[in-house]
Amino acid sequence: MTKKIGIxxxxxxxxxxxxxSVVYGFPAIALPLKDxxxxxxxxxxxxxxxxxxxxxxxxxxxxALDFLQIKDKPISYEIISQVPQKRGMGSSAAVSIAAIRxxxxxFDQPINDALLEVLVNKAEIIAHTNPSGLDxxxxxxxxxxxxxxxxxxxxxxxxxxAYLVIADTGIHGHTRxxxxxxxxxxxxxxxxxxxxxxxTEEVYRAIISKDREAMGRAMxxxxxxxxxxxxxxxxxxxxxxxxxxxxxxxxxxxxxxxxGCIIALAATAKDADTICEKLLEKGAVNTxxxxx
Length: 292
Known about the structure:
Blueprint: E1 5-17, E2 28-44, H1 56-68, E3 75-81, H2 91-106, H3 113-128, H4 134-139, E4 144-148, E5 152-156, E6 163-168, H5 175-184, H6 186-208, H7 212-228, H8 234-245, E7 250-254, E8 261-266, H9 269-281, E9 286-291
Antiparallel strand pairs: 1-2, 2-3, 2-4, 4-5, 6-8, 6-9, 7-8
């Protein structure tokens, strides 16, 4: 008899624009990365799971079992992930989504996205105290998402005939430390944060009007503003410069900063391939290409 396996999948995400300024009431734009996936497998086990409520995965499985009112069924889990941790790519939210889907699948229970989002956010709140919900929303979406704090989320369709290169610096991002650093010098950082907010709005308008060049320029300017508030690192700056030196229409760091990823906008698939190649030569540990 074959062993029963519950399977759940989820995709990754990346912040296009608005990191840090989003904390101060400006918009952010996030993109789903549908080809970069996490899979969770749930199987029967001999012993009950021990839950660690500082760990999002553990908390997500607990949330799913708690909702289904299942207490005495020992299960084990396995995660197969293409999403690097602590790089601003939504690893935590994607793992939670995949795990909850796998638990529901294992127990033959249906789950819709609305319930899934509630359970994921519950897990994220326990593990991360005060998440915006943007990661979960984007990892559940097939479309880009715009977000304004205390206002909410909106879906954004992107059809630019362009390519986004994502490159991993290989260095863990430190979002909490970066947010604290920006807040500590809030007064002197406010002009840069305001500029970041305006640049996000420029990118939004460029997406609507399909103006790749304007979008690229705003992205590059945003990197300078993020650098000015002290959340970029030398390796991110180096990769941004390298992308711009090889036909990128624009490039910037992405996410909380002090590590993580950079993103670059390319007009053609060939340019995107070249940019990937050059970034790997300059020390990026991995690259991905997303059609926009």
